[in-house]
Design a protein that fits this description.
α1 links the parallel β2 and β3. It contains 2 helices and 3 strands. The chain is an alpha+beta fold.
């Protein structure tokens, strides 16, 4: 379960945007599911991005779309 989401953290200002979410069509087939997953990740990461200490890149891998919101939140908060 832990390898369904990868979070890379860089010093603030090293990316053009403070949060980049990558969900490939290979990982999540349907566009509706990809967009839902992106929205969920952005919502969970919002407090971290507002702090402004780091820039984040979140990469969703196969199986991430099947996670419930709570499981996804716990997974991202532990990374």
């Amino acid at each position: 379960m832990e390898n369904q989401i990868i979070v890379k953290r860089n010093r603030s200002g090293t990316q053009k945007k403070p949060l980049i979410v990558v969900v490939s069509s290979k990982a999540v087939k349907r566009a509706v599911d990809r967009n839902r997953l992106k929205r969920r990740i952005r919502e969970i990461m919002r407090p971290y991005v507002k702090r402004g200490d780091y820039d984040y890149t979140v990469i969703a891998r196969p199986g991430a779309a099947e996670l419930s919101f709570e499981k996804l939140r716990n997974l991202l908060n532990n990374k």
